[in-house]
Amino acid sequence: MKLSRTAGLAALGLAAALSLTACNNGEDSAQGPAAKDPSASSSSDSRSQAGSAKPGSGTGTSSSSGAVNGGAESGGTMAFCKTADLAVEATNAAPDQSSGRINITMVNRGSGTCSATGFAGVDIKDADHTSNPVARGQAQPRVTALKPGEAAVFDLAYTIDGSGKSLAHPTDILVTPPNETHTVSLKWPAGAGGIKGAYTDVQVYPTHTTN
């Protein structure tokens, strides 16, 4: 009996030792390299933050903000001509007695080259103080870059009323240069023929250079 009791105690001791060894091995493998090398964990966290940063947020890489600044400094897009830098004039340029045409010339009085490309906004003011917008004609804009002192021109076209009974009595032309918001008021040119029909029959064409 003493022999079997001793053998049983020895077996229990051996099982406890094996269990303790297994637990220690499990803790070591769970910790892994990150626990032994703290820098591995911080490096992983920084990569995760950089990957989740939004462009322009000030975190992560700075390449997006650098590209924007570089484009602005290089002046990749030409500035549009400002109304304040333009000398604008309207003249009667009718080629005959039936085709009405008014040339509106814009001279760049600024210190740098600017773009006058596109359609100007035009309204015609009548003697009854109403203002009537002019529709765009069927034409494609051409690139119109103006150096200081150079001019761009665009036309208003309409059919002349030769009866002398036109119901339109224009007094002023309100011009807003392409891509601008400031308007200049010009007098309707003296000697220009009467407008046949309504102001909706007048059309404005895009700018072009006079060179």
Describe this structure in words.
The chain folds into two domains: 2-74, no CATH class; 83-209, Immunoglobulin-like. Helices cover 29% and strands 27% of the residues. It contains three helices and twelve strands; from the N terminus they run H-H-H-E-E-E-E-E-E-E-E-E-E-E-E. It has helices spanning 2-36, 38-52, 63-74; strands spanning 86-92, 99-108, 114-115, 121-126, 131-133, 135-136, 145-146, 151-159, 170-176, 184-187, 203-204, 208-209. Strands 1, 2, 6, 8, 11 and 12 form a six-stranded mixed beta sheet that branches. Strands 5-4-9-10 form a four-stranded antiparallel beta sheet, with no helix packed on it. The chain has a two-stranded antiparallel sheet with strand order 3-7. Helix 1 crosses helix 2. The protein is elongated. The termini are far apart.
Question: How are the SSEs placed, and which strands pair?
Answer:
Blueprint: H1 2-36, H2 38-52, H3 63-74, E1 86-92, E2 99-108, E3 114-115, E4 121-126, E5 131-133, E6 135-136, E7 145-146, E8 151-159, E9 170-176, E10 184-187, E11 203-204, E12 208-209
Parallel strand pairs: 6-11
Antiparallel strand pairs: 1-2, 2-8, 3-7, 4-5, 4-9, 8-11, 8-12, 9-10
Average of pLDDT? 75
Low-confidence stretches: 1-75
Oligomer: single chain
The largest sheet is: 6 strands, mixed
Structural category: alpha+beta
CATH superfamily of the largest domain: Immunoglobulins
Strand fraction equals 25-35%
CATH architecture field of the largest domain? Sandwich
Topology, number of strands: 12
Radius of gyration: 41 Å
The percent of residues in helical segments reads 25-40%
Q: Compute the number of structural domains.
A: 2
Count of helical stretches: 3
Q: What is the approximate shape?
A: elongated
User: Alpha-carbon distance between the termini?
Assistant: 124 Å
CATH fold type of the largest domain:
Immunoglobulin-like
CATH class group of the largest domain: Mainly Beta
